[in-house]
Amino acid sequence: MVSLTLKITNEFKALIDKLTWINWSELAREEVLKKLEEERSVETFKKIIVKSRLTEEDADQLSENVKQSMHQSLKRKGLI
Questions:
Q1: pLDDT tens sequence across 11-53
Q2: Domains of the chain: which residue ranges?
Q3: DSSP-assigned states of every residue in 15-63
Q4: Is 7 helix (H, G, I), strand (E, B) or coil?
Q5: Model confidence, pTM
């Protein structure tokens, strides 16, 4: 297994030291994995939109249709 070292200020280290119940290595690992998954999702999204013929105007119209539909649905349910 590989080790990773971070440089942080003394003040930051003092704050971290107060939270002894937190497994900082595990937290850092989980956050890095989340960021990697986000990046993977962005790359997938980019691959999809490159092939898309949807224009910005189409997207705006679709957004407006969704807003109106949601508004009507919430109104029928008496939520607005």
A1: 999 999 999 999 999 999 999 999 999 999 999 999 988 888 9
A2: 10-76
A3: HHHH-TTS-HHHHHHHHHHHHHHHHHHHHHHHHHHHT----HHHHHHHH
A4: coil
A5: 0.57
